[in-house]
Amino acid sequence: MGIIERFIEHPELGKKEYAELLQASESSEGRERLKKEALRLRRLYYGDTVYVRGLIEFTNYCKNDCFYCGIRHGNREAERYRLTKEEILSCCEAGYGLGFRTFVLQGGEDPWFTDGRMEEAVRSIKERYPDCAVTLSIGERSFESYRRLREAGADRYLLRHETASEEHYRKLHPAEMSLSHRKQCLYSLKELGYQVGAGIMVGSPGQTYEELAEDLIFLRELQPQMAGIGPFVPHHSTPFKDEPAGSVDLTLRLLSIIRILLPKVLLPATTALGTMDPLGREKGFAAGANVVMPNLSPAENRKQYELYDNKLCTGAEAAESLADLKKRVEAAGWKLSMERGDAAEEPLQEN
Known about the structure:
Layout: H1 3-9, H2 15-24, H3 28-46, E1 49-52, E2 54-59, H4 85-98, E3 102-107, H5 115-128, E4 133-137, H6 143-152, E5 156-158, H7 166-172, H8 179-191, E6 195-202, H9 209-222, E7 226-231, H10 248-261, H11 271-276, H12 280-287, E8 291-292, H13 299-302, H14 322-331, E9 335-337
Helix pairs in contact: 2-9, 3-10, 4-5, 5-6, 10-12
């Protein structure tokens, strides 16, 4: 039995075997076999549904200096902005009117947004829209901070670990940042009852199959409800400006592998995938993804939240273009759902 069939039968492999699996997935036969199994599991737990989340990028200030990120603290060219609580609520109001039932508040690690300010924003959204889920994506905070935000009503938390390899982490981050702390944050979030999202930046500078194998082991151990898998895309104002972008093909193969590894996971077809390939979103769905996050941020701020060059924020990436998104999703054979769409716990009954 080849490594791909072994993985499909028993997804719990060792580091060396996961690296071998990634090597084997380079062949068209291997890729198609993984995709077929990923689609089978996606349909088993979610049918043909693609869930929509409304993304609100509410601050592009960040205290960190990650080498890959366009809103890093050291980028003096970035046009900084912060949305007020009223502006955040206005985005939610527009989104609710369009049918959104999950709001994702994403921002840099901005110290201005203290626990008190974030609590107030989350509580206001939940009071106004009690039938909606609130997802936060605001980086590393203390256990107490996460506890307060959970008690204020936050349902989910996205914190991509980017790489689970200590050696690779050091190539991507300044010395004051710590992989062990990032991992601890993810376990704290789980302990507090959040639906948790981790994730990988595919093809970041220096990444090897062995390091991606460590990511797969970490995801298997963490058992997140969400996983964000997107290609690295360089930004012109970072130390990695001249590095090659990550591979769309490898990203798609990893989407299939993670769907098999974590069958119940919510798996976005990311904006980075759509930025790298005009059909990236559709290819992501065909590889096992089942979430899409159009942008609800004020139009004048979308370009300013530039994590990487040429980031899509118009067309089907914009919340106002839901009809276009619906058409594209349905043309690819899927069904768009505006429900809050929590992670599956059991297979669908009809299966």
